[in-house]
Amino acid sequence: MARLELIIVFALLFEVRSDNREHLYRFYHPDQDVTLPCGIKNQPPQCSRMSWLYNRDSSHTLIEASRGKIEKTSLRADRLSLDSNCSLVIKHITAEDVGFYTCRLEQQFEFDVNVFLSLLTVSQLPADSDQTRNSEVTLECSLLRYIDGRPCQPNGLHWLDETGTEVTEGVQKLSRGTDCVSHLKVKNQSGDNRKFTCQFVQRNKVEIQADYPPDLIGRTM
Known about the structure:
Blueprint: H1 2-18, E1 22-28, E2 34-36, E3 50-55, E4 62-66, E5 69-70, E6 80-82, E7 88-90, E8 99-105, E9 108-125, E10 136-144, E11 157-160, E12 166-167, E13 171-176, E14 179-187, E15 196-202, E16 205-212
Parallel strand pairs: 1-9
Antiparallel strand pairs: 2-7, 3-4, 3-8, 4-5, 6-7, 8-9, 9-10, 10-14, 11-12, 11-15, 13-14, 15-16
């Protein structure tokens, strides 16, 4: 009986400690400078005891920073730094920065701060396609995400025209691993100030959006 009580107490303690872990989801555009927070609950900044880990997928973990310093062996060392709060600063993010980041206080896993970094891009396919008036072009909206085996949620990406009306005609949603991808076929209306916006919506909230053409880009954080 005493052993059973001990197991129950341990399970309760584990559950409480697990609640200290934070899961943050951040959405960005290419070439932004971003800061991934490392605010461990009820813990003052202790950068000399902190590490930053990175996973592009669940099979391999890289150490990007340890004991308050960026690892010199990191392939991204020239773009990484730590601020006074131990947050990880990444300059000019690209697709290679997408993934799952963990800020850890030594080996105290129960205080992990987990940050999922995703990247939204909108481009024309192919980039050098015919630009003549009234020609048909394909726009691609991609949300690059952490590879964890879970597919992109249905209807996560939405297209809007310049009036804010949702566009459904000419839309094709694709499966590309865990990334969210949507194509939109439109007539090239150069000179008419036409604009198309791709939004990523999650739980009825617009997490991020990007416009096409690029010179009309309006970004929402």
